[in-house]
Design a protein that fits this description.
Elements: H1 2-15, H2 19-30, H3 35-45, H4 49-58, E1 70-75, H5 78-82, H6 85-96, E2 110-115, E3 127-129, E4 132-134, H7 139-151
Parallel strand pairs: 1-2
Antiparallel strand pairs: 1-3, 3-4
């Protein structure tokens, strides 16, 4: 891990980057921002860890916990909600085995993200699976897509 940290540090210093760019590099390397990385860079760069955590929690693009290999983004906007979005979210949770407030499966195969709006209201309900948009998706189609991901 420290080898990766040093590579990121070198790139950060060469580009005279910001905390945001540094966090982006860390997340690109690890898929999320490990706490160990925050404290390591905080110590090396003499920047309080609270600045890293403050930035990482302010911007939705950053993840402080590991994410799954497959990212399922469910729209929770008004149009999707009215057209059965809640039911789809419950179906997704059942299909991938999430309970309560969990977002990522224990095997890290899936992460379910719920967002306020994806901007595709005319195609509601909308789910994005690994950056592919599925509009007017039905529970049956969703189940088929998740099954294919489980098998891959």
């Amino acid at each position: 891990m420290e080898k990766s940290f040093n590579k990121i540090l070198k790139s950060h210093k060469e580009s005279n980057g910001s905390i945001i760019s540094l966090l982006q590099q860390i997340q690109n390397e690890f898929g999320y921002i490990p706490e160990k990385a925050v404290f390591w860079f905080s110590n090396i760069l003499d920047i309080p860890a609270s600045r890293f955590f403050g930035t990482a929690t302010f911007y939705a693009q950053f993840n402080l916990k590991p994410r799954g290999k497959n990212i399922i983004t469910a729209c929770c906007g008004t149009a999707c909600h009215v057209r059965g979005g809640d039911r789809l979210i419950n179906n997704i949770k059942n299909e991938i085995g999430l309970s309560g407030e969990e977002k990522t499966t224990g095997d890290r195969k899936f992460t379910l993200e719920q967002v306020a709006c994806v901007g595709a209201c005319s195609a509601a309900p909308v789910v994005i699976i690994n950056e592919k948009v599925y509009g007017k998706i039905t529970p049956e189609k969703l189940k088929k897509e998740i099954k294919a991901l489980k098998e891959s």
